[in-house]
């Protein structure tokens, strides 16, 4: 008996540029698992086509005439929640707007391509769209902030976190559940270089601890969270008596720079009490490093499949025995505080 293939992911493209709509459509149509069901030039047209076409996923520009993409995203999430992939130009202003959109409930961000030739072999957007269609929350943002943990975090040790696809909303949930006096926390989130400063600022405004983009030489402090800058440098933690951040240029590790594996391995070498957390993401970055942390005596957590947008990185870690506890997103913050106490 033949098995019926799964239905393709139905996508509506929203962008005020006809050229960009055509380019995005051409990119997505290369994937047989995706069907572009329509295009819209502004929010008004998009609203009509969402009703008539009922797409699985929306790609959404931020800068549009009339109602901008951020305002439209708010209305989508309030009235008709669905997975949304932001397609944004990589500018400082655009980066901040993109992170705001992700925090508001968008699934992921994709930098606008200059031309089809520049991404002929790039399947990232198609992968994002397909992952968005599988998103457990279907693009619905958290309606209420989690109640802030009140357990004392103690002064010993540190927390190291790795995340990739789907990590923006997940980190807002997890760090939002940390108390103001949490252990020093370091994060590698796979994200384009121009987005990390804006995302750190967003986390800082949303979450109880102080959150900042990491700088080389910074000594780790309780109540502070440090996000690795995207781009050309890895982040590691060095120093035993006074652990500090070291940023350095180098080749990609596990396909990334900064790499979660680099961060985790550096924490394992410190020989201090630590908690390692591997969240949603494509690929295997962080799995080997988390195993090194566990073998060095650290406590380890992996996000579970049900709440992961993409169960790649935590699944790889679980498969090699790196995960002590596999937990849903909503329980990660509390478990981390208990382990660090």
From TrEMBL:
GO terms for molecular function: protein-glutamate methylesterase activity. Signal peptide: none annotated. Residues 152-341 form the CheB-type methylesterase domain. It catalyses: [protein]-L-glutamate 5-O-methyl ester + H2O = L-glutamyl-[protein] + methanol + H(+); L-glutaminyl-[protein] + H2O = L-glutamyl-[protein] + NH4(+). This is Protein-glutamate methylesterase/protein-glutamine glutaminase. It comes from Sphingomonas aurea. Involved in chemotaxis. Part of a chemotaxis signal transduction system that modulates chemotaxis in response to various stimuli. Catalyzes the demethylation of specific methylglutamate residues introduced into the chemoreceptors (methyl-accepting chemotaxis proteins or MCP) by CheR. Also mediates the irreversible deamidation of specific glutamine residues to glutamic acid. Its EC number is 3.1.1.61, 3.5.1.44. Belongs to the CheB family. HAMAP family: CheB_chemtxs. The modification 4-aspartylphosphate is found at residue 61. Contains a C-terminal catalytic domain, and an N-terminal region which modulates catalytic activity.
């Amino acid at each position: 008996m033949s098995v019926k293939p799964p239905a393709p992911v139905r996508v509506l493209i929203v962008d005020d540029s006809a050229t960009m709509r055509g380019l995005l459509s051409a990119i997505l149509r290369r994937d047989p698992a995706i069907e572009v069901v329509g295009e819209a030039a502004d929010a008004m047209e998009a609203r009509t086509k969402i009703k008539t076409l009922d797409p699985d996923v929306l790609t959404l520009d931020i800068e549009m005439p009339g109602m901008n993409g951020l305002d439209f995203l708010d209305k989508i999430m309030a009235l008709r929640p669905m997975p949304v992939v932001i397609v944004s130009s990589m500018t400082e202003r655009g980066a901040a707007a993109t992170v705001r959109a992700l925090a508001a409930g968008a699934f992921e961000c994709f930098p606008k391509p200059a031309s089809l030739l520049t991404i002929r072999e790039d399947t990232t957007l198609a992968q994002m769209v397909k992952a968005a269609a599988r998103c457990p929350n279907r693009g619905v943002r958290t309606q209420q902030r989690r109640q802030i943990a009140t357990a004392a975090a103690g002064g010993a040790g540190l927390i190291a976190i790795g995340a990739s696809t789907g990590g923006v909303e997940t980190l807002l949930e997890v760090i939002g559940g940390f108390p103001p006096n949490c252990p020093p926390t370091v994060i590698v989130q796979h994200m384009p270089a121009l987005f990390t400063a804006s995302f750190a600022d967003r986390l800082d405004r949303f979450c109880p601890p102080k959150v900042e983009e990491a700088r080389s030489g910074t000594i780790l402090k309780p109540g502070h969270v440090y996000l690795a800058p995207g781009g050309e440098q890895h982040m590691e933690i060095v120093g035993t008596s006074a652990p500090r951040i070291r940023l350095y240029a180098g080749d990609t590790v596990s396909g990334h720079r900064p790499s979660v594996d680099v961060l985790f391995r550096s924490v394992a070498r410190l020989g201090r009490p630590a908690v390692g957390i591997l969240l949603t993401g494509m690929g295997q970055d962080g799995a080997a490093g988390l195993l090194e942390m566990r073998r060095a005596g650290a406590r380890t957590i992996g996000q579970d499949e049900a709440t992961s947008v993409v169960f790649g990185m935590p699944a790889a870690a679980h498969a090699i025995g790196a995960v002590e506890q596999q937990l849903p997103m909503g329980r990660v913050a509390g478990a981390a505080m208990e382990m660090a106490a």
